[in-house]
């Protein structure tokens, strides 16, 4: 993603809330792919900003499932920023862990089915 000037905070860096929002989106996609249903965020277990992000960075979000419970799923998300055109540098700028709960259409919790990729 390419942050825009509207995503800046008062110090001129990308607003932390924008990063957190994108992390939640990336995490929920990983959770939905594994659970094959709607999920809701129930906890941000950890969130660490490692360095500021500016509007000249291209930001990427990488999510992976860390644990699967009966109705909940924990996802780790790492955030990287690319900077520089000729001297490309890739920096890890944030890391987070979030917990999601699998939901039925009526809004109640549901069991997460077994992973079809694992026998």
Automatic annotation (TrEMBL):
Lineage, top-rank taxon, reads: Bacteria
A Pfam short name:
4HBT
Instruction: Show the InterPro entries listed in the entry.
Output: Cytosol_ACT (IPR040170), HOTDOG_ACOT (IPR033120), HotDog_dom_sf (IPR029069), Thioestr_dom (IPR006683)
According to the entry, every stretch annotated as the HotDog ACOT-type domain falls at 1-106
Q: Name one GO molecular function term.
A: long-chain fatty acyl-CoA hydrolase activity
Q: Name one GO biological process term.
A: fatty acid catabolic process
Keywords (alphabetical) are: Hydrolase
Q: Which PROSITE patterns match?
A: HOTDOG_ACOT
Single GO cellular component term? cytosol
For this chain, the family text in UniProt reads: Belongs to the acyl coenzyme A hydrolase family.
What this protein is called in its record is Acyl-CoA thioester hydrolase yciA
Q: Which organism is it from?
A: Methyloversatilis universalis (strain ATCC BAA-1314 / DSM 25237 / JCM 13912 / CCUG 52030 / FAM5)
């Amino acid at each position: 993603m390419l942050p825009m000037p509207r995503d800046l905070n008062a110090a001129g860096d990308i607003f932390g809330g924008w990063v957190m929002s994108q992390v939640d989106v990336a995490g929920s996609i990983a959770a939905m792919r594994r659970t094959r249903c709607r999920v809701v965020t129930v906890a941000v277990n950890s969130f660490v900003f490692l360095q500021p992000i500016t509007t000249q960075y291209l930001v990427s979000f990488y999510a992976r499932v860390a644990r699967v419970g009966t109705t909940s799923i924990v996802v780790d998300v790492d955030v990287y920023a690319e900077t520089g055109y000729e001297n490309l540098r890739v920096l890890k700028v944030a890391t987070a862990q979030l917990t999601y709960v699998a939901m039925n259409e009526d809004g109640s919790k549901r069991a997460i089915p077994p992973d079809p990729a694992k026998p």
